[in-house]
Amino acid sequence: MSPDHRVIIGDSRRMSDVTDESVHLAVTSPPYPMVSIWDDSFAEAAARTYNDMHEYLNETWQEIRRVLISGGIACINIGDATRTSNGLFHLYPNHSRVIENFEKLGFVTLPYVLWKKPTNRPHYKGKGAFLGSGFLPPNAYVTLDMEYILIFRKGPPRSFPPKDPLRYDSKFTKKERDEWFSQVWKIPGARQDLEGLERRVAAFPEEIPRRLIRMFSILGDTVLDPFLGSGTTLKVAMGLDRKFVGYEKLPQLTEIIKSRIRSTHRDVMFSEQGQVIKELVG
Ligand SMILES: C[S@@+](CC[C@H](N)C(=O)[O-])C[C@H]1O[C@@H](n2cnc3c(N)ncnc32)[C@H](O)[C@@H]1O
């Protein structure tokens, strides 16, 4: 019998350990193309251009399509990026490229959420700060202080037997519904006091996967995070009585993931891609 919670240290562009149509919901935050801290993640891409980075992510999106059940949902948290190339500052609209790519894969695009983070200063000429002359038009830039939570469905909506008890036990309150199903979410970012790899991984706050898992899955469903990072989605999914499978490419993150889930008192299987289960942490 396959374990309820699995972490695979490996590449989510080939999720050979996950069978077809076995996942109900994917919740993830990929490395963002053109955000320089992520350049290493794309080292295998032929050249680190915007197109190549999206091609790289697209391989994981294809795998998501394979492993999702019909009616399963994928939630992708992604921010746009800005860069100066050839002396010209401009926008790389990651969210629109991801939407295009999911559409090409045949997903149904659903209305998305804008996650507003209460941080960031305005930009001036891409230098990250509004200098004195930034009060003069017309060469200042709008600050990117929103991220997108894009929502896609594979095929038509899921159907359930009438009065399905697990579905009814998963229901949200009116207050939750009114807040979660509105388009702008004001949620503070994850902890800022982290250092080294833990900081570099750019974790999202637990509130993001908590809402998405409650909104788009029912108790006992299987949740996938193909870009697991520090393990936020795993921790939240376990707390919400969902099964979980996740991939993370960097073996150095294993200890960080284990420390995130230490308090859950639930078993998690850690393995390397394509290998039999190596270790049980509980
Ligand atoms: C933005 S971080 C995810 C942060 C995560 N949501 C959290 O809360 O910690 C993206 C992660 O994807 C990993 N990654 C990049 N390419 C990958 C791939 N092909 N397969 C699996 N993981 C990958 C990176 O190492 C990084 O940890």
Detail the topology: elements first, then pairings.
Layout: E1 5-9, E2 23-28, H1 50-67, E3 68-78, E4 81-85, E5 88-92, H2 94-104, E6 108-116, E7 123-124, E8 140-141, E9 146-153, H3 165-169, H4 174-180, E10 184-186, H5 196-200, H6 207-216, E11 222-225, H7 232-239, E12 243-248, H8 254-261, E13 268-272, E14 279-281
Parallel strand pairs: 1-12, 1-13, 2-3, 2-11, 6-10, 11-12
Antiparallel strand pairs: 3-9, 4-5, 6-9, 7-8, 13-14
The protein binds S-adenosylmethionine.
Explain this structure.
By secondary structure, this protein is of the alpha/beta class. It has helices at 50-67, 94-104, 165-169, 174-180, 196-200, 207-216, 232-239, 254-261, and strands at residues 5-9, 23-28, 68-78, 81-85, 88-92, 108-116, 123-124, 140-141, 146-153, 184-186, 222-225, 243-248, 268-272, 279-281. It is globular. Bound molecules: S-adenosylmethionine (SAM).
Structural class: alpha/beta
Strand order of the largest sheet: 10-6-9-3-2-11-12-1-13-14
- Please work out how many helical segments DSSP would assign: 8
User: What's the helix-strand series?
Assistant: EEHEEEHEEEEHHEHHEHEHEE
**CA gyration radius, whole angstroms:** 19 Å
In this entry the ligands are:
S-adenosylmethionine
CA-CA gap between termini: 17 Å
Strand content: 25-35%
User: What is the mean pLDDT?
Assistant: 89
Main sheet: strands, sense, barrel: 10 strands, mixed
**Unreliable residue runs:** none
Helix content: 25-40%
The counted number of beta strands is 14
* Net shape: globular
